[in-house]
Amino acid sequence: MKKIVILAAIAALTLTASCTKNTVVATPQEDAISISAFTPAATKGQTSSSTALESFYHQFNVYAFVGTATTFMNNIPYVYSTSWAYQNDTDKKYWPQTDAINFYGYVPVSGYATPTITSTTQSLSVTVPTASAAQQDVMYAKCLNATKSNRDGDNTTATPASGSVPMVFHHALSQVNFAAKNTNSLIKVTVTGVAIKNVKNTVSVDFSGNATTSGSLTDYAAVLDNASYALTATATTMTTNDHLILAPQSTATIPWDPTVTSDATGSRFAITCKILDAATDVVIYDGVAYLPATFNWQSGKNYIYTFVFGDGAGKTPDGDNILDYITFVPSVETWVDQSNDVTM
Hints:
Layout: E1 10-11, E2 18-21, E3 23-26, E4 35-38, E5 59-66, E6 70-80, E7 84-86, E8 101-107, E9 114-117, E10 122-127, E11 139-146, E12 165-168, E13 170-171, E14 174-182, E15 187-206, E16 211-221, E17 229-230, E18 236-237, E19 244-246, E20 268-277, E21 283-292, E22 302-309
Parallel strand pairs: 4-12, 14-22
Antiparallel strand pairs: 1-4, 2-3, 5-6, 5-8, 6-7, 8-11, 9-10, 10-15, 11-13, 14-18, 14-19, 15-16, 15-17, 15-20, 20-21
C-alpha cells in the first residue's frame, strides 16, 4: 500500500544587489537572479513537518546552464540564516537579456548524496546507511528554460515569489512506515520490532525521478515510537516519529521462500512479536515472524505497511506457520475378538 502526502508551502528567497562607481547605486532587484524553494511532500518526521525548505536544510546548491555548452552557475551554495541569499557575494548572477537558463538544485550538500550534474545529465547517487537516524532526505529541483521575462520557465504550475526562480524540490528516495493490528480475538499480540530484510541499498536517481538501483542486499530495522505495542483491532502506526527513507527498488525484489530454510537472500518483513492465547495467556510464539515480500518502490512515495494478525501471523525463520490451529481427527478402534470356551 502506498500513501502520498502532498503539501504546498513557499519559502520566498529574496536578494538585493548593488554596484559601485564612486557612490553606491542600488540596482533593481529584477536584474538579479533570486530563487524560491518548494517541497511538495513531507520529509523525514524527525527533521520537520513543515514544507519550508529551511526547516530541513539551511543550504542547497545550484547549477545553471545556458544551452548545452555554457556553465552559468557551477555548484553555487544558496544558504539560509534569517533569510535566503548567496553564500558568497562573488557568486551572484544577473539575468541575461534574452538567453534561457536551465537551473538544477539539490540537497543535502554534505556528501551524503553524490551529484552528477552537467548540461545534459543530472542525477544523485546515494548508498543508504542501515541506521535510521543517519538516513537523510535527498531532494532535487529543476527549473528549465527560465528567462528574464519568464522566470517560471517550464514550471508553469509553481507559484513564483516576487520574480524569483521557482525550484520545486522532489524526494529522490522512498519513505517506509509501519502499522499493525490484531483482528483475531483468540490471541493477544505484542510487537516490539519491525525490519525489512534483503533490499538493495544503493540508488542513482535522475532529475525526472527515474531510479537505477544497485549495491548490496541490506537489512533495515525501523525505530518504533514505543518500546512495544499491544495490538488491538484498530491499526496503530508505529513509526510516526522516525521513518525509514530507503533506496527506490526499480524492479521487484525476489521474495523469501519459506520452503527453503537456507534462503538467506530473499526479501521479507521481520516482525519481532509475542503471541499469547487470549483465554489462558499460554505463550503460542515468542520470536521473529517472517513475511515474504516484494518491493517496487518509487521515488517520492510514502509506503505504509499495515500488518494484520488474523488467521495467520507469518512464519518462523524455519518456514513453519506460527499460527496452527489444534485440530483433531477422530477414529474408533476396532473391537478385538476374544474367544472363550464356556464349559456347560
